[in-house]
Structure formats: structure tokens, C-alpha cells
């Protein structure tokens, strides 16, 4: 392929080729070089290196095959970089000697190189170092694999990709592959995203490009297709006849915290809604793919995205928290939204008439992300339970991962009265001792395996920008104003009014509390203490009858 065009033929070739060539036939052993570009930055230290460390600890990055290179412009030493990363690898609550040994062994795999993003010198040096590492490690059956993680602002993607292509591709006589991971936001609108796609598409084939959206790596997001398509329960319910409205919500209880300069150029729609929440929406609404092959899944996602109707102005509420502009890197008159509620409507047989309410905000009263599917009222309500609230199916993505169903049951006792309760699958309780992998950890491993299932394809990205670009342009042109809201609040009151207009019915007097493991422990403790005193009493009776 290698051209910037994205034709139907290329897409169908990808459909038939990529899974086979990328997953089944490519050797997955041999030397692996992972290059983190932008190694001095925030994402690299908080997410990328910790994810690599977790993969290392679990044996996915064997030290005799893997070497990690950090690359950025900052003039720092190997040890400076290692020190910067170290505190993100150790456990706050204290690490065991074994864990500390792992940290120090892992850090020894990392080498730092300084260079610019648009001149060949630095990348030639990088290639030389990678090649040296490959020749020291290469075995007869091995191959050379080069993974470039662009933990960088998108403005430098074209020049960095050009440098990689010119200087750093894996050497074909060794076999293996070269893959690149690019972060979001991929562009600012439809036109810039397409331009970026064309520039990168001229350098790399689509199967080599991994557009990462870390929400696709979250455990409960990955569970969505299983829930929907492996359970008879949901199959007949999942449509406009039964579902009244769906909310997909992201809330953070902190502001932009030192990232104001970056954030102000993008805003909450580009930062969260156009990518993370829209990807979740795809998994909630897409039709069943014919198989789990990446291309089959992504074909269905594109279809549903292309069925989204233009966003109506009266179905948007924007907000900006008070104090946001106090960040010295944010302009005094910024109108950038830090909060948005937007209703999307899907024009197909399954979803016509159902509002999908996407809501995201910073500096709100809580931190959580969830999908809330609200069902319609029961017709012919003989129990008068309508006033108590509707059935809801909730997927809590974070924190306290859980899937629960809010439903009406008989209040236990002699009377025939009803009450709201829930069927609750809380992960901490159900899967005790199981560590849920971090999203980045899982997605980097997928990249090494060549599995594109949880990455965004070019036409998917285009369809997602098509949905939001007209609204984003209106905001950029000042046609939409962000309503101020208090930090620590629910956001602007207008957003709740929009929710109500869309048909969402709030359940009053009911709150789902994630079950904790403390209660049984406390209970056992009480039993133990009572047992102890009973035993003392029994013994004293024998001694002093
Ligand atoms: N931070 C996060 O939590 C998340 C970030 N992302 C995405 O990941 C990417 C990287 O984010 P993050 O690490 O926060 O970004 P940073 O602002 O920390 O940038 C990363 C590195 O890029 C270099 N850099 C910064 N600005 C420029 C510039 N204008 N031109 C050239 N180089 C520059 C700097 O390295 P040096 O000067 O040493 O070369 C910096 O250390 C972005 O696309 C972001 O949207 C996605 C999800 C979460
Ligand atoms: O991509 C981003 O995500 C984080 C939130 O990620 P989470 O996994 O903690 O939910 C957000 O804070 C950041 O603004 C955004 O760029």
C-alpha cells in the first residue's frame, strides 16, 4: 500500500490480509526494540514506562530479547531518565525487595538518547544503537522487531514518522517488523486528521499504524462485546423497543492540573468525547461482527459511526469551571469547554429515537466513568413501581469496576410492597486476588503481537471527526458559549435539564454503594472477639464452677 489514499480496495485487502499476516505468520520471538519518543514527557513517565514495567514483570518482555530506548530533545542522561521514571514504578504503600530488584533490573534495560524530531542526526544515532543491540542479541531463529511509541504532541508526528521511515526501519534481511503507536488527539478536526492520516499513510501501511485509544484497553470496555453477544439475556432487549436512553459518562474530580496549555488548544470534546466516549458508544451500539477478527469488528464500528445524525445545537451544553483561566498558560478570555453534554442519535433500525447522552467534565464532584442503559417503563404497572425508578443496566468502568442491574423486587417481609435493588457483579468482590491489567499494558502487548482489534482504523477515525467537526468549528468561532460552573459541582444545571428533556428519569432515594471486603472482615473480627470471650467464660466456669 504505502500511499496516502484510503480506497475501498485497500480496505478490503486489509480485511483479508492483515489478520493473517500480522498475527499468524509473523515470528513473535527474537530481538525487540521499543523506542519511546517523547520519553521526557508526562505520558511516558506516568503511563508508557509503567506499562512496559508491568509487562516486564509478567515475563512478556524477556531481558535477553528486549531493549528499551527513550528519545527526546531534553539533554538528560540515562540515569536522569531512570530516576524520573522510578517513582512511578514503585508501590506507594511500599515495595518488597523482590519488586525493588525488578525495578532496578528493568531500569537497566532503558537507554536514553537525545535528538531533535526533524533532523536525521538523532535518528541515525538511534538506528545505530538499535542495530548494535540487535546484532548483540540476534539468534538464528530470531528476527528484529522495532516498536516506536510516539508519546508526543501530534504536531510532530509527520516529521517523526518521516525520520523513522528514512533512518530507523527494521532491516529486512533480519526479518520481523516495524510498527508505530500514535496517541490521541489525532488531529483537531476532520480536515487536519485526514491530512495527518495521509502524511503518515504515505510512509507506513495501515497494519503498521496503531492509533491508540486507551479506553479500548480498559477491562470493562473490553467486556462490552462479550456481555452483548455472549448472553441471551441482552440479545432481545438491546434495541429501541426496550431501551429509553443511554448515558456514557466521564467525570474527573480534578482540573487540568498543569496541562492547561495543552488542554486549552483541544477542550473536553477533543480530549475525551470524540475518542474515548465515542469508542465506548461504538461497542454499545454496533451490530454483531461476523467474527472477532479486527477488521470485522472495525467494519461494524464504522457502520454505526456513519449512521450518527448531525448534532443538534439544542442538544449540547458546554461548561467551563471557575478558576480554569487562572492557569497562566490559559488565555484570559478562553471559551474552551472543560465540560460537555452532547446527545447523539443513531439513524438505524435498532436505535432510531434513542438518545445517547455523552457527558464529560473536569473538576466535578466525583471521579468515575460509566455506561448507564436505562430501560423503558413496564407497561401496565400493577405494582405502582414506576415512581420508584426504572430498570437500569450499569457498567462502571472505573473506579470500582462493576456491572450491576437496578431492578424492582419485593420488599422482604409480610407485606407486598416493592423496592429498588440490584444484581451486582463487583469485580473486587467477585475476583479477589485478580489484578486487572492497566489499559496501556494490554494495548502495548497487543501491538507487539500485531493485534489491531483494540486500535482505531483510519476510516473509523474519519467517521468520528465527521460527527464532531461542525460543532467544534462553531465553538472555535465563538458561536457556542461555555457556561461557568463551580469546581466540585455536577457541572452546569442546564446539563441536567437537557438530560431530563432527553427522557432520563433519575431514581430518587436509591444509591448503589460498591460493596467492600471490609464488612465480612469486620464481621469475622466480631465473631472472633465474641468467641474469645465465650471461651474465657466457658473455661472460667470449669475452673470456678
Ligand atoms: N499525559 C497524559 O495523561 C495523556 C497524554 N496523551 C497524549 O500523549 C501525547 C503526549 O502527551 P504528554 O506526554 O502529556 O505531552 P508532553 O507535553 O509532556 O510532551 C511529551 C514530550 O514531547 C516533547 N514536546 C513537548 N512539546 C513539544 C513541541 N511543541 N514540539 C516538539 N516536542 C515537544 C517534550 O520533550 P522534549 O522537549 O524533551 O523533546 C515532552 O517531554 C499527546 O499526544 C497527548 O495528547 C494521551 C492520553 C493521556
Ligand atoms: O486521555 C485522557 O485521559 C485521561 C483520563 O484517563 P483515565 O484512564 O484516568 O480515565 C484524562 O485525564 C486526560 O485529560 C485525557 O487526555
Which characteristics define this entry?
single chain; 545 residues; alpha/beta; 9-stranded mixed β-sheet; 6-stranded parallel β-sheet; 15 helices; 18% strand; binds NADPH dihydro-nicotinamide-adenine-dinucleotide phosphate; binds the ligand O=C1O[C@H](COP(=O)(O)O)[C@@H](O)[C@H](O)[C@H]1O
Can you describe what's shown?
39% of the residues lie in helices and 18% in strands. The protein has 545 residues and is of the alpha/beta class. The strands form 2 sheets. Strands 14-13-12-11-7-10-9-8-15 form a 9-stranded mixed sheet, sandwiched between helices. It has a 6-stranded parallel sheet with strand order 3-2-1-4-5-6, sandwiched between helices. Helix 5 crosses helix 6. The longest helix is centred in the middle third of the chain and has 26 residues. The radius of gyration is 26 Å and the shape is globular. The chain starts with 7 loop residues before the first helix and ends with a helix. About 1% of the residues have low confidence. The chain binds NADPH dihydro-nicotinamide-adenine-dinucleotide phosphate and the ligand O=C1O[C@H](COP(=O)(O)O)[C@@H](O)[C@H](O)[C@H]1O. The ligand O=C1O[C@H](COP(=O)(O)O)[C@@H](O)[C@H](O)[C@H]1O binds next to loops.
Amino acid at each position: 500500500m504505502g500511499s496516502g489514499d484510503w480506497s475501498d480496495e485497500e480496505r478490503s485487502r486489509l480485511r483479508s490480509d492483515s489478520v493473517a499476516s500480522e498475527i499468524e505468520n509473523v515470528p513473535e520471538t527474537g530481538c525487540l526494540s521499543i523506542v519511546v519518543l517523547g520519553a521526557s514527557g508526562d505520558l511516558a513517565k506516568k503511563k508508557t514506562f509503567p506499562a512496559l514495567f508491568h509487562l516486564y514483570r509478567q515475563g512478556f518482555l524477556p531481558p535477553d530479547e528486549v531493549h528499551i530506548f527513550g528519545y527526546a530533545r531534553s539533554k538528560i542522561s540515562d540515569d536522569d531518565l531512570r530516576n524520573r521514571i522510578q517513582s512511578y514504578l514503585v508501590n506507594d504503600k511500599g515495595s518488597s525487595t523482590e519488586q525493588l530488584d525488578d525495578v532496578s533490573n528493568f531500569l537497566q534495560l532503558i537507554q536514553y538518547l537525545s535528538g531533535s524530531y526533524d533532523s536525521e542526526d538523532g535518528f541515525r544515532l538511534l538506528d545505530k544503537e538499535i542495530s548494535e543491540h540487535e546484532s548483540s542479541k540476534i539468534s538464528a531463529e530470531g528476527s528484529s522487531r522495532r516498536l516506536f511509541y510516539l508519546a508526543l504532541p501530534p504536531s510532530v508526528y509527520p516529521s517523526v514518522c518521516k525520520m523513522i521511515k528514512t533512518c530507523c526501519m527494521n532491516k529486512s534481511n533480519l526479518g520481523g517488523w516495524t510498527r508505530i503507536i500514535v496517541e490521541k488527539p489525532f488531529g483537531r478536526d476532520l480536515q487536519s486528521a485526514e491530512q495527518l492520516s495521509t502524511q503518515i499513510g504515505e510512509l507506513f501501511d495501515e497494519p503498521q499504524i496503531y492509533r491508540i485509544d486507551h479506553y479500548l484497553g480498559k477491562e470493562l470496555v473490553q467486556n462490552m462485546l462479550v456481555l452483548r453477544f455472549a448472553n441471551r439475556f441482552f440479545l432481545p432487549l438491546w434495541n429501541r423497543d426496550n431501551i429509553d436512553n443511554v448515558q456514557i459518562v466521564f467525570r474527573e474530580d480534578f482540573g487540568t492540573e498543569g496541562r492547561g496549555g495543552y488542554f486549552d488548544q483541544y477542550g473536553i470534546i477533543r480530549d475525551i468525547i470524540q475518542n474515548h466516549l465515542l469508542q465506548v458508544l461504538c461497542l454499545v451500539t454496533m451490530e454483531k461482527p461476523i467474527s472477532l477478527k479486527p477488521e470485522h469488528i472495525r467494519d461494524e464500528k464504522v457502520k454505526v459511526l456513519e449512521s450518527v445524525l448531525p448534532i443538534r445545537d439544542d442538544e449540547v451544553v458546554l461548561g467551563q469551571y471557575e478558576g480554569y483561566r487562572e492557569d497562566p498558560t490559559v488565555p484570559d478570555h478562553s471559551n474552551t469547554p472543560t465540560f460537555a453534554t452532547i446527545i447523539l442519535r443513531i439513524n438505524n433500525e435498532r436505535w432510531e429515537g434513542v438518545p445517547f447522552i455523552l457527558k464529560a467534565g473536569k473538576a466535578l464532584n466525583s471521579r468515575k466513568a460509566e455506561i448507564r442503559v436505562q430501560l423503558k417503563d413496564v407497561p401496565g404497572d400493577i405494582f405502582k413501581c414506576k415512581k420508584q425508578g426504572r430498570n437500569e443496566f450499569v457498567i462502571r468502568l472505573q473506579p470500582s469496576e462493576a456491572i450491576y442491574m437496578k431492578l424492582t423486587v419485593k420488599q422482604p417481609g409480610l407485606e407486598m410492597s416493592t423496592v429498588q435493588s440490584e444484581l451486582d457483579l463487583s469485580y473486587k468482590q467477585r475476583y479477589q486476588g485478580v489484578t486487572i491489567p492497566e489499559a496501556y499494558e494490554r494495548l502495548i502487548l497487543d501491538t507487539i503481537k500485531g493485534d489491531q482489534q483494540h486500535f482505531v482504523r483510519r476510516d473509523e477515525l474519519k467517521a468520528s471527526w465527521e460527527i464532531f467537526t461542525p460543532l467544534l468549528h462553531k465553538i472555535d468561532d465563538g458561536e457556542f458559549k461555555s457556561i461557568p460552573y463551580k469546581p466540585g459541582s455536577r457541572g452546569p444545571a442546564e446539563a441536567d435539564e437537557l438530560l431530563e428533556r432527553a427522557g432520563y428519569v433519575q431514581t430518587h432515594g436509591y444509591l448503589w454503594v460498591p460493596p467492600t471486603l471490609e464488612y465480612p472482615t469486620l464481621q469475622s473480627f466480631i465473631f472472633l472477639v465474641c468467641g474469645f470471650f465465650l471461651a474465657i467464660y466457658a473455661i472460667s466456669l470449669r475452673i470456678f464452677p
